[in-house]
What we know:
This protein is mainly alpha-helical. The protein is built from four helices and two strands, in the order E-E-H-H-H-H. Strands 1-2 form a two-stranded antiparallel sheet. The chain is globular, with a radius of gyration of 16 Å.
Amino acid sequence: MPSEKHPCRWPGCTKMVILRLWGCPVHWWKLPKDIRDRIRATYRWGQERDLNLSIEYIEAEQAAQDWIAALSTSQCHDVIFKSEDHQ
């Protein structure tokens, strides 16, 4: 029987959440509302058990991961330039 929990889908987060949730509350609420809405709208009850994900859900998940990657890149850029300002 598969585990009833999975790690939060935010890269690097190891908090375990129940299967039907995308991620831990902290990271879920960091996502923009439009991405959260897409994930909710395309989620199908039971997909985490049969692994039959819709293209729309996969695209919503990819949008979340792309947004996180852009956020991480932006934050790294800000840190580098702020650091250079103080030299």
